[in-house]
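Limitations
The structure tokens in this dataset are predictions for the assembled complex, not deposited experimental models. Users should treat interface geometry with appropriate caution, especially where small molecules or nucleic acid strands are included. An illustrative entry is reproduced here so readers can see what is and is not provided.
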Amino acid sequence: MTELNSIALKILQNGKGILAADESTATMTKRLEAVKVSSTAENRLLFREILFSASGMTEFIGGVILYDETIKQESSKKNRIPELISNMGSIAGIKVDTGAKKLAGSENERITEGLDGLRERLNEYYKLGAKFTKWRGVYNISKSHPSKLSIHSNAHALARYSSLVQECNMVPIVEPEVLMDGDHSAKECYEKTSEVIKKCFEELIIHKVDLKGIILKPNMILAGNKSKNQISSEQVAKLTLECLKNSVPSEVPGIAFLSGGQSEIEATENLNLINKYNDTSFIMSYSYGRALQQTALKFWSKDINNIEGTQKIFNHRAKMNTLAAKAKWSKELEN
Ligand code: 5MM
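Predicted assembly:
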């Protein structure tokens, strides 16, 4: 087993998942303002430190994706954040893309940037304690999207990123997110997601990325959020499994889904069914942002000093998702 493979497995072992706490300052500001908390560096850290020091981190969360601001901050007990995370028994990771910008040559599509100077930034993050990284490509579905241009250029960027990350001895999370926005059918989502993922692996292989040392972070197969033809959780699970079986090489050790705007319960229920029917060699777990934090954030915003109450909510959500990663979740456990 290579070092990168063992890090990937450690992050996702025994039903553990990933806490995506890598919201950029702009996104975190949106999230905080939506619950009427002012978005200062102190408040962003306060909420995140509450999650990172919750007891559920040890049992349920194998890795935390941080944002540049957070990885450089100190906890209230004067620990560096990656140290706090590792003291809790989890592993610190870092988002290294610099965001999705308008893609030249295409209307309404985006290309993720951040390759310039990446090698130097990776070395810096490694020294700060990161063991894995994340880069997200975004694709939207419409009659003409995602275009070949967007599929090709985002896959190329994800592959260049991954090979630089492995050169620096960290595990790259490869996140091609086909957005759920729109009125497209689940079938369209299935087809576009398959095309996107296949192209990513084509480029990863060209760039000599060790597939045993990556984690794939895809969307589940869903009908668009404006579609009248929503599908059941059973169908989501079966289509998602079929799509991944046909597009992901078997060397990949683990898949950690993004929640992408699903409610907390939907994201848990779908993951549970995916694991119930999982007949692949892949570990199927979670790397959720909103679906792990939403209720905890709402609760915390009403009394930002209620650390224990906020942690209780977060611990519960993490536990439910870890049960789902073992196909042991049921609705009754939510109460
Ligand atoms: C946590 O949000 C990440 C994106 O932040 P920016 O848009 O500010 O860069 C995002 O990549 C996230 O890690 C994944 O989409 C998973 O989050 P969800 O909420 O979809 O589970």
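Some entries come with short summary sentences. For this one: Strands lie at 17-20, 61-66, 91-95, 100-102, 110-112, 132-139, 171-178, 215-216, 254-257, 283-288.
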